[in-house]
Amino acid sequence: MRRAIYPGSFDPVTNGHLDIIERGCKLFDEIIIGILVNPDKQPFFTIEERHDMLSEVLKGIDQGKCSVSVDSFQGLLVNYAVAKQAHAIVRGIRAISDYEYELQMALMNRRLEPSIETVFMMPAETYSYVSSRLVKEVFQLGGTLDGLVPPLIETRMKKKMNKA
Ligand code: PNS
User: Taking a C-beta distance cutoff of 8 angstroms, is the pair 94, 102 a contact?
Assistant: First the structure.
């Protein structure tokens, strides 16, 4: 039984994240998507909204025999991973620019908790430039998010903006 944590902000989840989850499903029996509760950041969506959206869009991807669930965590990622009895942390790497920061985190996490391995996965080239930050920027400036996020996410972003 191989269990992995896929941690992140997921503010919002993008097609790139979903691509990584699908790929991760081929390697692991179970993936827990851990949304970081970060009191220092002003997110676009609340933790509850992100949790709900992730659960919805996960229904649309190929999970194979893997069991995928959504959760949230605070504090050190490795402590959370140990508490969940996970073997690995999955992170997506899009470009060399991601690698430096991701390597630093992976090595720090290894130092803190040598029993947990970090597994880097590459998304499809189509998503190599997609990030939650750019998705929010394009959206706020009126650009289309077609192909970058599932339609449900764009709808929720529009709803959220109209409420604000
Ligand atoms: O989607 P993001 O914002 O790139 O995800 C970053 C995340 C959640 C993986 C990272 O910030 C994290 O692990 N935070 C938890 C706090 C922690 O463990 N910090 C030490 C990391 S070396």
Answer: no
User: CB of 11 within 8 A of CB of 45?
Assistant: yes
**Nearest C-alpha to atom 7 of ligand 1 is from which residue?**
8
- Write the single-letter amino acid at 148: L
d(CA 30, CA 65): 9
DSSP string over 16-61: HHHHHHHHHHTT-SEEEEEEE--TTS--SS-HHHHHHHHHHHHTTS
Distance CA(45)–CA(9), nearest Å, equals: 10
Atom 21 in ligand 1: residue holding the nearest Cα:
105
pLDDT values of the chain reduced to their tens digit, one per residue, 164 residues: 999 999 999 999 999 999 999 999 999 999 999 999 999 989 999 999 999 999 999 999 999 999 999 999 999 999 999 999 999 999 999 999 999 999 999 999 999 999 999 999 999 999 999 999 999 999 999 999 999 999 999 999 999 988 55
Q: Is 77 in the pocket of ligand 1 (CB under 6 A)?
A: yes
Tell me whether the omega of the peptide bond preceding residue 12 falls within 30 degrees of 0, making it cis. Answer: yes
